[in-house]
Amino acid sequence: MARFHRRTCIILLLFILFICSMMMALKTLRPDTAGFGDPFGLGLLPELQQRTTLLGNKHSPLTAANGDSVTHTNHLHSIALNSIKTSMASVRKMEEELSSPNYNFHVFYYSWFGNPQYDGKYIHWNHPLVPHWDSKIANNYPKGRHNPPDEIASSFYPELGTYSSKDPSVIEAHMQQMRSASVGVIALSWYPPGMADENGEPAEDLVPLIMDNAHKYNLKVTFHIEPYKDRDDRSMYSNVKYIVDKYGGHPAFYRHKTSTGRTLPMFYVYDSYVTIPEIWANLLTVSGSQSIRNTPYDGLFIALLVEEKHKHEIHRSGFDGIYTYFATNGFSYGSSHHNWPSLKAFCDSSNLMFIPSVGPGYIDTSIRPWNNHNTRNRVNGKYYETAFSAALLVRPEIISITSFNEWHEGTQIEKAVPKKTGQVTYLDYKPHKPTMYLELTRKWSEKYSKEKEQWLM
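Predicted structure:
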């Protein structure tokens, strides 16, 4: 019995010595100050950081057969070198896949989606069917609300499923998709704290997370101010001040360099035409009673143009530019491609920016079943490319894209997948891949950059 205990102690002692020698060998692999990612300045690539962590974890449980410590150390050193080479190869591949961001390409982004896992319920995926304003027409169409996850308020189905905008992995995936499309600026749909659209929930608290993730991918964020309740000159001043004070110091906060050399934040103002020019002039002209001009909160304020008459009202209001938003060629004066040359000429003569909005198509019959006459078929990407061609013809300083993820209106460039349930067959991007519209965006971003060099010559 004593002999058995002695043998056990010897084996235990040898095992402890083996563990100690292995730890010493591991410690000699690299200096404490050397990091796998740090020297290469690749903090923008979070996937690399995750890979590095995994590589580090793979080293710790290594065991070895009998042999001297020198051989063991050399073996581990070889593994470490191979790991670094593999990591660097992954970095190069990722850098090749991610196009450079084009800060003259802005994409409209919505953070209003929710699901039971993150929000306790579905938000926006279950959007109600909007009745027609004429009750006689409304009676001919279904009523009620969508029933996710299989039956959602969209004619397409997202690759990420019925996601929550609060899900950090979703935000990360969105940033990666936008960066892969060579977009540079996210125009984030924004309501003041505690406010939301009638079918949503307040989402202002998501802005820091969105901006942090945008910064990882070298993207910038501007604000698309929605028509919140009682929006006027006073509340706009207060809310612009809130945005600049809270987010103006963040590295992802977008500022645009003007032709005069000033660098100012930009704000898209949705449905600006519902407020009379006199109210806007209080805020946006130097002599206005609530003037924001020449204050620390001054910026570039871009108004939505729908009708032709709006261009004169926008100019009188003191706005800095015009955007057209709608991805429906022919739906409104502003969204009709053939009107863009005259709008650009007006803006040039009035010292305004003209920002045409292009989109891959339009279909909102999942929420407005009576509106099929405004559907614009994607035609396997041709509709989108036609819109880009029309935009480039007027040589705009900025092009906006409607949209990254407005699924209700079928304007999304986000990845979509084929899906069929007992109730509905969703549209998809076939015969092309789910990344088709991201790839087309990148193609036209690169084309825009090349053509812009010619314009400036």
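Summary: DSSP finds 13 helices and ten strands in the chain.
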